[in-house]
Amino acid sequence: MHSTYSDGSGEVKDIAKFAAEAGLDYVILTDHNTLRALKEGYEGWYNNTLLLVGCEINDRQNKNHYLAFGIKEAYSTRLSAKEYVKKVNEDGGIGFIAHPHEKRTHMKEHPPYPWINWDVEDFTGIEIWNHMSEWMENLNEQNKYQSFLHPLKTISAPNKKTIDIWDKLNLKRRVVGIGGVDAHAHKYNFLGFLEVEIFPYKVLFKSIRTHILSQEEIKKGRSSDALEKAKKIIYSSFETGSCFIANDYHAESKGFRFFAQEGRKIFNMGDSIEKHDKTKLTVLVPSVKGEIRLIRNGRQIDSVENHEAEFIVSSKGAYRVEVYLNNKAWIYSNHIRIGI
Predict the structure, then answer these.
(1) Quick one: DSSP state of residue 335?
(2) Is 138 or 335 the better-scoring residue by pLDDT?
(3) pLDDT for position 107
(4) What domains appear along the chain, each with residue ranges and CATH number?
């Protein structure tokens, strides 16, 4: 999400307030090519919501957008994508390719910002689901008024090309998937006399979320040590893939689990298992029954309509789960890699 420090309309404190009102545990600000919010002390707790500050980096052509977390200095846009991906790693940060397959052409003031340097290999992961990007891709003359009035109803699923390349990359190494709303709270003059906020922060905070799983409790604290520990827990979950992406507009997804059992040992999302002989995969879906789809190497191999499911697999590969609710994409797990 973005604030007035780049191209958003909201002040940082107001964004944090909206996030707290939406019941979020954490949010990450990613203004373009700046860490001013970090430098000016905005990182911290706002009621029960932790606001962290990263940034979104791009190259000279305004392509190859990269979400960088855990760094302390912003980088020059004169650097190439390969250079700033490497620099984020060297500075102890993690990074995710943002909205990689944008191609929209119907709004000149909002051109696409795709990722084109796929020869870069050492990024942490990919933003597989971006609310604003999908909303704009789907916009047309027939649905634009409905889309403006109901921004949460006009997104359906992640970009298929992004999902395909994510699955393919996970056959070689762990590539973590995350999701984001890309909130700017843009204001438009509607019908020539009415100013409309198309993407209110508080509204978008009800949609795409990245849920983390941690062995440690995040404890609220005002000290710098407490803040750093909380930050480490969140970023470590991102780095290891111990997280899942959901559109919580459809239903509350907190409590979802996808894990593997090999003997007495439990493996969670992001983990790798050396053996691949009769591994049990377990899926737990919170609150409502969903269509649980088991994906191996990018292809669906099984499905169950239930609150939970167990699958016994014997083939090596990169396994993940998708859950659909009333034929709508709801939850996407990260991969568990078995025997690869």
Answers:
(1) P
(2) 335
(3) 62
(4) 12-247 (3.20.20), 257-338 (2.60.40.10)
